[in-house]
């Protein structure tokens, strides 16, 4: 008699599990359907040009918003400077020179509570042996238009060849981020 009750209980649990799985599949389908409908119902917004950036910023590559202050830099080959932009109109408010650096291929800019980080990390041909992240004190940037950076050098441990190979992106980095 005990075996029968266990068998019935197991069958009820199996049926309940199958029912729950079926309901889960229906809920997933409904969620996907609502996403699909939402995507189809989207309205498209035409971007509005607010301003044209200064000719000094001819290839902006990174952008950071530090407490309402917008900072950017140019990509490769520019001077070693960062530009503070007016958020309302894009005009340059300040230019800060990072004295002990070179802009080989600056790709991105990010920050944490105390520092601004500039990634000289571009390596499109896979031939750079001088990859760097520049760590600059935010307090120094606030106080002066000429600052010095701590230089963090790095390399890819699995890179064994530095022969130029255009678009060898296995050893290229185009973005930099901080978590704090």
Summarize the structure.
The protein is an alpha+beta fold. The protein is built from two helices and nine strands; from the N terminus they run H-E-E-E-E-E-E-E-H-E-E.
Neighbour order of strands in the largest sheet = 1-2-3-4-8
Oligomeric grouping of the chains: single chain
Shape: globular
* Biggest sheet record: 5 strands, mixed
Percent helix, as a range, is: 25-40%
The poorly predicted ranges are 1-17
Number of helices: 2
Secondary-structure-based class equals alpha+beta
- Alpha carbon gyration radius: 27 Å
Q: How far is the first residue's CA from the last residue's CA?
A: 62 Å
Counting DSSP E segments of at least 2 residues, the number of strands comes to 9
Helix-strand pattern, N to C? HEEEEEEEHEE
Query: DSSP strand (E) fraction?
Result: 25-35%
Kindly state the mean pLDDT as a whole number?
A: 81
How would you characterize the overall build of this protein?
With 180 residues, this protein is of the alpha+beta class. The protein is built from 2 helices and 9 strands; from the N terminus they run H-E-E-E-E-E-E-E-H-E-E. The strands form 2 sheets. The protein has a 5-stranded mixed β-sheet, with no helix packed on it. The longest helix has 39 residues, at 2-40. The protein is 25% helix and 28% strand.
What is this structure's SSE topology?
Blueprint: H1 2-40, E1 60-66, E2 69-74, E3 81-85, E4 92-98, E5 106-111, E6 115-120, E7 131-137, H2 138-143, E8 146-147, E9 150-154
Parallel strand pairs: 4-8
Antiparallel strand pairs: 1-2, 2-3, 3-4, 5-6, 6-7, 7-9
């Amino acid at each position: 008699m005990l075996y029968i009750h266990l068998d019935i209980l197991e069958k009820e649990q199996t049926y309940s599990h199958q029912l729950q799985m079926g309901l889960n599949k229906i809920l997933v389908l409904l969620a996907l359907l609502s996403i699909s409908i939402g995507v189809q119902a989207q309205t498209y917004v035409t971007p509005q040009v607010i301003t044209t950036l200064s000719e000094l910023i001819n290839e902006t590559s990174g952008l950071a918003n530090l407490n309402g202050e917008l900072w950017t830099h140019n990509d490769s080959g520019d001077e070693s400077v960062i530009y503070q932009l007016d958020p309302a109109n894009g005009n340059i408010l300040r230019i800060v020179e990072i004295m002990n650096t070179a802009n080989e291929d600056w790709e991105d800019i990010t920050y944490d509570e105390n520092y601004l980080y500039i990634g000289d990390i571009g390596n499109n041909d896979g031939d750079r042996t001088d990859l760097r992240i520049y760590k600059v004190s935010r307090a120094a940037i606030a106080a002066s238009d000429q600052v010095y950076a701590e230089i963090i050098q790095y390399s890819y441990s699995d890179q064994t060849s530095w022969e130029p190979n255009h678009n060898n992106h296995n050893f290229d980095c185009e973005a930099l981020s901080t978590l704090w």
